[in-house]
Amino acid sequence: MTSNINIVKIGGNIIDDENKLNQFLQDFAQLSGPKILIHGGGKIATEVAKGLGIEAQLVDGRRITDTEMLKVVTMVYGGLVNKNIVAKLQAFNCNAIGLTGADANIIPAQKRPVKTIDYGFAGDITAEKVQVRNIQIFLDNGFTPVIAPLTHDNNGHLLNTNADTIASTVAVALAQSIATNLTYCFEKKGVLASIEDEKSVIHQITPESYQTLKQDGVIVQGMIPKLDNAFEAIETGVKSVFICHADDVLSILEKKEKAGTELVHK
Amino acid sequence: MTSNINIVKIGGNIIDDENKLNQFLQDFAQLSGPKILIHGGGKIATEVAKGLGIEAQLVDGRRITDTEMLKVVTMVYGGLVNKNIVAKLQAFNCNAIGLTGADANIIPAQKRPVKTIDYGFAGDITAEKVQVRNIQIFLDNGFTPVIAPLTHDNNGHLLNTNADTIASTVAVALAQSIATNLTYCFEKKGVLASIEDEKSVIHQITPESYQTLKQDGVIVQGMIPKLDNAFEAIETGVKSVFICHADDVLSILEKKEKAGTELVHK
Q: What is the DSSP letter of B105?
C-alpha cells in the first residue's frame, strides 16, 4: 500500500495557454511519489463547438450537455486535451495514462435527474462508486493517471462531469486507504481577499472563516462550488487541500514553501 | 503468463454505422480470454475536419497529417471513437480501457522521415519498440485495451499511425511470448475472388497463392497493404491471421466455424 498520494487538478485557463501548460506539466512530472492529474476543458470545447455550428449552453456556470455537445466534449476533453497532456508528460519522463471515468470503469456515474433544469448528459458521482482498486493497479505499476472530466453510466453512455468534483471525489475515495493531498491549480495565487490584488492571498481558511468570508462577499460565485468541494474533501478524510497558482505546485508540495491557500479543519 | 490472446482490428465502415458497431462490440465482449481491440477512424474524422473548414489530404490512400488534421484525429480517434467504444464495452461487461500509443508509452513511434512525400505527423512503428510489459499489466489485471490509431514520438507529439499497422505490429510484439491470433474485421465476408460476389470468399491464402492473386489482379490496391501486414505478422510469429466480416468474429474465434479468409504459412 502506498503511503502518500498527490491529486492535482489543473484548471482551464492554464490548459488554454500552451506555454503555461508546458511549464506546469514539467513541474507536475517532477512531483515525487504516486500522483494523479485531473484536468478541466478550458475554452477549447466552446471554440470547437462554435466551429461546428453547435451553441454552448450554460446555466449557473454549468454546461448543458445535449447529444451534440457530448460529442464535442468527448472529442476535446477525452481526446485533444487528455492525449496531448499524456504525450507531453511522457516527454517529461512521467509514465502518464489518459483515462475517462469509463476506462477500466474507474468512475461510474448516474445521469443527473431532471428537476427544474435538464442538464442533459451530465454525470453525478459519489466517492463510494469510485473503483479505487483499479486506480490502485495503475499507481502500483508506476503509471500516472490523467483523468478527463468525463464519466459513464454503465449503460453505454459517456457523461460530462465537473473536473473539480472529479478531483475531490477521487481524493475522498483514495483517502480511505492512503494519505491523500488534493491541490487545485489555477491562474491565481490562491483565494484572494481582494480579487484584483494578487498579493492578498488568504493563506488559511477554516470552515468558520469560510462562512464569514462568504457572508462578507469576499468569496463569491465561481469560487463557492470549488471551496464547497474542497471542504467536503477534508471533512471526509483528505489530509490537505491547497488552492494555488499552477506555478507554485512544485514548491508547495515538494519544498513545503508557504504559498497559495490551505484549507484546514479548524 | 497468458496462453492465448485475440487481437481484433475493427475497420472504419463498421465504426461509421452505430447498429453494426453495437452488434460487433456485443460479440467482441463475449470473446473469452485476454483480448485487444484496435480501431480505425472511419469517415468521422473527415466529416469533423470538413465541419471545421479543414481539408483532408490523402496520398495513395494515406492521410497527410498537418497540425490541424492532427488535432482532428486526436479528437476523433483518441476521443470520440475510442471513448464511445469503451463506454459501450463497459455496458457489455467488458472492462475496456481506451489507449493511444502515448498512454503508458505502449507504442513509441518515429515521425516518418520526409522522402518524396511529407506525411506530416505520421508515426512509423516497429514491434521491438512496443512496450509489451505495460500491455501485459493491463491484460493480467483483466482489462481489455482498446487502441486508437495514434502513437507518439516521446518528444511530446502525438502521431497518426495506420490502424492495420498497429494491429499487426502489436500482434508481432506479443507473439514473442504469447500465442497470438490476429483478426481483421470489416464489412466484407473476407478476401473475395470477385469483388461483387460476397459468396466468392477465398478461404485460405498462402504466400505463394498471394503472389498469384496479385499477379492476376484479383487482389488489388486497398487490400494489398492489409495483406502485406498480415503475412508479415504470420511470418514473424503470429499464430493465425483471419480477415472476415465483423458479424463472423465470434463464430470463427469461439466456435471454430469456417468463415472469412485465413492466411497460412504454406
A: G
